[in-house]
Amino acid sequence: MSSESHSFPIQSHFARPSWNFIKTHAELLAALLSGILVLTAWLLSNYISENVFVFLHLAAFVIGGFAKAKEGLEDTIHEKELNVELLMILAAIGSAAIGYWTEGAILIFIFALSGALETYTLNKSQKEISSLMDMQPEVALKLTDEGYEVVSVTDLYVNDRILIKPGERIPADGTIIKGSSAINESAITGESIPVTKGIDKEVFAGTVNLNGSLTVEVTKKSTDTLFQKIILMVQSAQSEKSPSQLFIERFESTYVKIVLGVVAVMLFLPHFLFGWSWMDTIYRAMILLVVASPCALVASIMPATLSAISNGARHGLLFKGGVHLENLAHLNAIAFDKTGTLTNGTPEVTDALYAAEENKEMILSIAASIEQESNHPIAQAIVRYASQEGVPLSSVEHMQDISGNGVKAFHEGNEWKVGKPEFVGKEEAYLFQNGIAETLAKQGKTVIFVKKNNEIAAVFAMKDTVREDTKKAVEELKKQGVYTIMLTGDNSATAEAIASEAGVDHYIAELLPEKKVDEIKKLKAHFTQVGMVGDGINDAPALATANVGVAMGGGTDVALETSDVVLIKNDLSRISQARKLSSRMNRIVKQNVVFSITIIMLLIISNFLQVIDLPLGVVGHEGSTILVILNGLRLLK
């Protein structure tokens, strides 16, 4: 009784993986079974009756050719156009009709095998989506007034608070409000080294909380997370075809009609023109039907494109279609937004000068204490600087924010002001430290003054710092012959300083969003292909205008949606890597196209010269198809 009760679950446990394997690899298994039937018929040809011999080949035809015949018929009915699948089926039937059963069956076998290889390429290219979707948590531990509640991630809303325990995947995009931990973000950025994050840091759905308990405030619904956007972008990329692929597909239908027309003529003309026997004439027509088929040409592009998109997805590069991947290699000018693209997007204090050096700790403490009440980036920069210097904050009273100018407050009876020169007294400000403010401003820095009662106590200079990878990225692009230009809304002094530090060829400052579009149009008038890299809402029009728009992964939703390529890790050096991948893909596609056309021409000429027979024609034609697919698969690495 006991053994019987356990036997059924064990069988069902193994049945499901076996069935999944058969379902996944059905096309390949059908091709292999077809090949086995052909081989069996050939080996036993001297020992079996003719009826059995024909039956084995018919079985090979049906098993190996069913998927392709079904696909060919459905596409023909749907598109109302002839295709290469029908050409191959006709060639196989024609071979069998004149008694060449084995040759026809071999044609079906190799054609089915090449089809299985194409399916493998498609499945391989979708692996990143499958692995990402598997990583997507389905439930979250939501904090409520009564304690904790397990809810579906689809029921999480903005501002909900969730608890993420060590070892768990983060179920939603959000901001840490309690705790700190090392986060494995490889699913999003492709970077295997964990990143330590604490309060106010952003976390993403699908990443792994390694060693600390975190309380996170949800900032995006489950349908709007970066994780979901990555999945949708890769899916979109796989369905969008490159110009080369579209051309081949348009060419295929016309070419198939021409081949069928020539074969129809070949069925009788050589008999009267060259004196060939009727058997030779029909035989050569069947060989022409096989060797002239554009299978290898059709398979030259899609496997290579899908492999390249898959490769990019693994390395933090998301292409929204083969057309953008193909065009990247042809870019000869790239425009960059400044803030958040070439720079980190947050100002940092670069200079701090005090009226009385011995009081600098006290002055910095009070200035940071006043600024901590403000969310302005400049205010936050001073607070961060005080923290870096290890200066404690002080208590201040009666703080008042003077919009657009600065803030003021009282400390121990003294009035303190922090803000622009006009706010603290322009003349006094520019006389401070022998007019150092003017020198700092010429360096492209923002200058903020601290005033105690009636005297200037300090000046802070800050600048949006250039990203660590910016110089390397720009240098790499310039080596590749790409003209680089920075487009920014900042003033000329700041733009000149950043452009010089980043190493771009040229810059244009004080641009409104619509003016950025005008500059992209001017670039397009001078260069064949122009790219634009940005991250903000104001960059979206320019990203849409450029031939290829590239968005930083940490950018706004509008920029991500408008762009053609996304740099998930905000790493500008990936642009150069993407161009190299694009060049490699274009090179492999050209190799495939030239190789497939050459083989087709050689086989057609050999057939007319009667130096090739049907088996060799089948092997030459289908072998070239398999070779171009395998060549395209090299882009997976």
UniProtKB/TrEMBL annotation:
The UniProt entry, under SUPFAM superfamilies, shows: Calcium ATPase, transduction domain A, Calcium ATPase, transmembrane domain M, HAD-like
The UniProt keywords, alphabetically, are: ATP-binding, Cell membrane, Ion transport, Magnesium, Membrane, Metal-binding, Nucleotide-binding, Phosphoprotein, Translocase, Transmembrane, Transmembrane helix, Transport
Q: What is its main location?
A: membrane
The membrane topology term of the UniProt record is: Multi-pass membrane protein
Q: Which GO terms describe its molecular function?
A: ATP binding; ATP hydrolysis activity; ATPase-coupled monoatomic cation transmembrane transporter activity; metal ion binding
Q: Does the keyword Cell membrane apply?
A: yes
Q: Which domain of life is it from?
A: Bacteria
**Name used for this protein in its record:** Cd2+/Zn2+-exporting ATPase
Q: Which organism is it from?
A: Halobacillus alkaliphilus
Provide the taxonomic classification: Bacteria, Bacillati, Bacillota, Bacilli, Bacillales
